[in-house]
Amino acid sequence: MNRREALIARVIAGYRAAYGADPAQLFAAPGRVNLIGEHVDYNDGFVLPCAIDRETIVALGESEKARFEAVALDMGAGARDSFVLDAPAGRIDGDWQNHVRGVVHFIQAGGHGVRPARIAVAGDVPIGAGLSSSASFGVATALAVSEHSGLALTPAQIARIAQAAENDFVGCACGIMDQMASAASTAGAALLLDCRSLETRAVPIHPRLAITVIDSGIRRQLTTSAFNERRAQCEAAAQHFGVAALRDLDAAELEAGRGGMDETLHARARHVVSEIGRVAPFAAALASGDAAALARLLEAGHRSLAGDFGVSLPALDQLAAEVQSALGDAGGVRLTGAGFGGCLVAVSDAAAAPAIAAAVEGHNREAENPARIAAFRPAAGAARISC
């Protein structure tokens, strides 16, 4: 039994235990690792994430009542919720419940009817590691609810619904990148996404390259971190320059108009502008297999996240430096995800895998939080799967 088969078996068994019947349908949505373009999605910029072969699976069946019922199999015994469908699905004290309630709310707010259903949800995307377990959960739920209700929604519409649920019900002011990567990715490729227009292009990953995710072992809670503060700072910086979003600035305009600007806001804006500028050359290097160019871009990206955007930690900087030293020109490494913990991503020549492993092993001899290496394959986006 492979990884996915085991996960499917677990979610079906959990559905059966919760409701005394077998589910009628299964839906899956992957997590993601962002390769470049960090904290720029909510600034209308360009990003280059890659869906991974870890996912959330939703088992769904009919309900005889005019209710929506849910059980979260990864959240411990008694992790259940239920609400009526003929009244607004309000927020409650909780996290996963508000993903579900928010998805139903925003589908209904779009003028669509939601059919009564029972769902059970389970996944194997590491929680709190910066691999978008929450977006995977939201997208899988949105796809399941929409298809069960007979709606032919596009991946972008599914992503928008899941994002709205996370913004307005869960309380995290995330951009659209995570949900779009989960909903719209192509197997074997990264997803070049324009976060303003939602136009996408699959960027093939050169066969001699490998993507390695290094879990730092440091966990964080996104909605209680400084994530929302960073978004507010970016919006304030855009307001200072009189633009709709920081995507509308270039480096020269950023420097020319900084007079009277708070230094912290300027640093936040400098990260966003410089990070957007790294996306296109990174995509070209990824497709051509130029490991030395990838090394330069990833190292610059990590420095910017740590210095200008202030979302790294000393332990993450140390781990990144040790891995980068081991790689040299064979590839690069940087913080991925929102920061304040979570994972690093390395993009390198596949032959450099032993060097990464040795660097992590050396780091762990002195580290308070041992890091772990995980190998993920570039995966396809959300879809209905066979029971």
UniProtKB/TrEMBL annotation:
InterPro entries: Galactokinase (IPR000705), Galactokinase_CS (IPR019741), GalKase_N (IPR019539), GHMP_kinase_C_dom (IPR013750), GHMP_kinase_C_sf (IPR036554), GHMP_kinase_N_dom (IPR006204), GHMP_knse_ATP-bd_CS (IPR006203), Mevalonate/galactokinase (IPR006206)
Domain GHMP kinase N-terminal: 98-183
Segments passing through the bilayer: none
Keywords, alphabetical: ATP-binding, Carbohydrate metabolism, Cytoplasm, Galactose metabolism, Kinase, Magnesium, Metal-binding, Nucleotide-binding, Transferase
EC number assigned by the record: 2.7.1.6
Organism: Erythrobacter sanguineus
Protein name (database record): Galactokinase
A GO biological process held by the record: galactose metabolic process
GO MF annotation terms: ATP binding; galactokinase activity; metal ion binding
